[in-house]
Description:
The chain has helices at 60-63, 115-128, 142-153, 172-186, 203-217, 220-226, 232-236, 247-262, 265-276, 287-292, 311-320, 337-340, 342-361, and strands at 11-14, 19-20, 26-27, 31-37, 47-51, 80-84, 134-140, 161-164, 298-303, 324-329, 383-385.
Amino acid sequence: MTAFRLSEKSRWLALGQPLLLESGTELPGVEIAYRTWGQLNAAADNAVIVCHALTGSPDADAWWGALFGPGRTLDPRRYFIVCSNVLGGCYGTTGPASAAPDGRLWGARFPRVTVRDQVRLQMALADRLCIRGIRFVIGGSLGGLQALEWAVLDTERVDAVVSLAASGRHSAWCAAWSEAQRLALAADPKFRDGNYDPADPPRAGLAAARAIAMVSYRSPISLDKRFGRASGGEVFADRAAAPEELAVRGWLRHHGSSLVERFDANSYLALIDAMDTHDLGRDRGSYERVLNRLGQPVLVGSITSDALYVAVDQQDLAFLLPRGEFLEIDSVHGHDGFLIDAAGFEPQVRRFVDGLEDAAREGCPWPVSASTNHVVSGSAAGEWIFGIDKPEDASWQR
């Protein structure tokens, strides 16, 4: 569990046995928080997995509402949709802000996790939900990294992937932005190498890290169109904390202080560390060879103004995938366009998804859903926890 606010619709699954991490460490007492929409069909093959971004939550209908609903990409009438909080996060799934077996918070003792570890936990959840086939896995940013890992780790179950504003491996450019955020956290005296008092966290360091990230998430034209040289009072009126200062400065400080109220600093660090491990070719042979062996259709979405996961990352990815399809998303909002402009590109994603079913009806060959080989043993020891009474808060998107 976590002290951070969760949706009252969240559910929890306790694995009942340790989770073996890539590092060889066994993580005990693992719980995963998740939400579902729709119903699993009789064949158990109409599942869709949604993967959230860095500071997201399982409430995908809140932060990606433009993709949800009848006739849209994420249609609960057609699909059994699952979104879970990522391993290492702080919205219900085990992470640094969770209690360790000794009763104290994990904090800095929480083991390092990778994107593969995160996906393997999501796969375990799919096993427990009796999912035999996954129509597609979809995500943006960190969620897009996870979606691609799903294609490699669960080839028999995953029919297709939609990866937006992401890449097949974390570039030096992305890793440099991650390191700038680490340095901001470490510079706060209250951080204490992660051994801080939860009641007195490194607020300044986390706010600075978030501010750095927010700059990478937007574009020059986006900020100039919204703020230009306007003052805080001109843009935000009586909501401006500093009416005489440039509005963009107040906007950046607001995002920093807002994250401090809803996220844990060690979780933030754990997740950016996990993102930097991302490389589909790591310990599997060459990157190109791994991609060339992927048989699923993959829609690779690229935002024209993304300064974090730049277009060449997605172009190379789509080119190397045998069934890769490149989608250029015209947005001035930079990396965050995968959230801000979701309504604009939803029809294109929906056409891709609908095309999968059309091709299936016409007998187009791609890996057929089958029962998974990744079942976690000892499932009888697992514990289901439903309907925890917590206030719903869907104010975040990223």
